[in-house]
Amino acid sequence: QKRTRLQWAKEKQSWTVKHWMKKLEEKHIGSISWPANSPELNPIENLRGKLKKMARDKAPFCKSDLATAIRESWSRIDEEYCLSLNKSLPQRLQAVIKARGGATKYLECVIVFFFVCFS
């Protein structure tokens, strides 16, 4: 029986996930289940958003100004902020579990931030 491209892609994706999960287990690296699209769970989204806002506030005019603004903004993000994002992950997970995968206050923060920055 001939497989469609979608069937082949799903089989390939399944094999890839199983392959890498096995590799992680062999190296005794644990993993957690993670929803496919959950910006409220991904602390890097908060960090990236903060960096983007800081760089945008400098109103770069050209590509080199933008690069400078990003470097300067990055240097002003302190380690404590990054650690606070990491420490908030258990609460984020609990909120998503409690909401049964639905929206949480963390998602609302991401949406509000997006609206403020891009409207």
Key features of this structure:
6 helices; 119 residues; mainly alpha; Tc1-like transposase DDE domain-containing protein
Biggest beta sheet attributes: none
What string, H for helix and E for strand, traces the elements in order? HHHHHH
Number of domains: 2
Mean pLDDT across all amino acids: 76
Large-scale geometry: extended
Number of strands: 0
| Number of distinct helices | 6
Beta percentage is: under 5%
Which spans of ≥5 residues are poorly predicted at pLDDT below 50?
108-119
Distance between the termini: 51 Å
Task: Classify the helix fraction into a percent range.
Answer: over 70%
Structural class: mainly alpha
Question: Gyration radius, to the nearest Å?
Answer: 19 Å
InterPro entries: RNaseH_sf
GO molecular function, one term: nucleic acid binding
Protein name: Tc1-like transposase DDE domain-containing protein
Task: Please give a structural write-up.
It contains 6 helices and no strands. The radius of gyration is 19 Å and the shape is extended. It starts with a helix and ends with a helix. The relative contact order is 0.11. Helix 2 crosses helix 3 and helix 2 runs parallel beside helix 6. It folds into 2 domains: 31 residues; 80 residues, no CATH class. With 119 residues, it is mainly α.
